[in-house]
Specification:
The protein has helices at 3-6, 49-52, 75-78, 88-100, 115-127, 144-148, 166-173, 178-193, 219-233, 266-279, and strands at residues 36-44, 57-62, 84-86, 106-109, 134-138, 156-160, 197-198, 204-213, 238-242, 284-286. The chain is α/β, with parallel strands linked by helices and 306 residues long. Keywords: Iron, Iron-sulfur, Metal-binding, S-adenosyl-L-methionine.
Length: 306
Amino acid sequence: MGWGELSSSPCNLCPRECGAGRKDGQTGYCLSDNRIFVARAALHMWEEPCISGEAGSGTVFFSGCNLRCVYCQNYQIAAGKKGRQVSVKELAEIFLMLQAQGAANINLVTPDHYIDQIVRAVLEAKDMGLLIPVVYNGSGYEKREVIRNLAEIVDIFLTDFKYMDGELAEKYSKAPDYPAVAKGALAEMVRIAGSAAFDEKGMMQKGIIVRHLLLPGHKKNAKEVIRYLYETYQDKIYISIMNQYTPFVKTGADSGFKELRRKVTRREYESVTDYAIDLGVRNAFIQEGDTARESFVPEFDLNFHV
């Protein structure tokens, strides 16, 4: 399946297949039409060490989201309320400016609903001299055939795997099919990216990092995710176990989901990381200290720091 079919109108680009006429100006479930909106473009120091390094990852945060979890840490842009419109050419130029600033890579954050335009922008930037790796930083809720079409432009997949529990996925993300969809998407990522490769500075050049954000009170789901990832892929992937859940105001944590109104405890997090170690996981990233602070979320000020 090619991009012409995937980005057709009515839109069937994501697993929701909402059928919006995005090319005609209608917004889909992702709250986006066919115009590209970017909320932030800048060097970002807060990704995994092999992604940010000392130079920083060249992150481009796209507005809108097809998942919109109730606990979203980037709710300002996920709800489509922040963003500046850019053309495909301008997006390509942003990639090149980030490279000129010394970015370790180009990091596409929540890109799936703009992927047709992003592919064109990356190819255009490569024609103009883009050499650094391209990172696809998504929610895991992507069609397998969409991932398949990224083989020519994506080097690293930095993907979420949020749920093994469909009921939990329905409760927090209105996506009961999330576990099945994420499994299929990840399998395609592994097929495309293969084994991880690093440069002499320890920076990832290709490979897969799968993130799981531990939610308060949901150790069981976290352990099931980690077990699936390790038993299925062993050391072919890196697993990033995150404790940075922050109960922000204006997210689901303040909208009736009482269990989300607190941070993850140290005991909860250690229980999950100890489980991963006992299981045999070695290729992993573990967070230390109090990362559940609003300061870890970038300022979506619409000023592109390029």
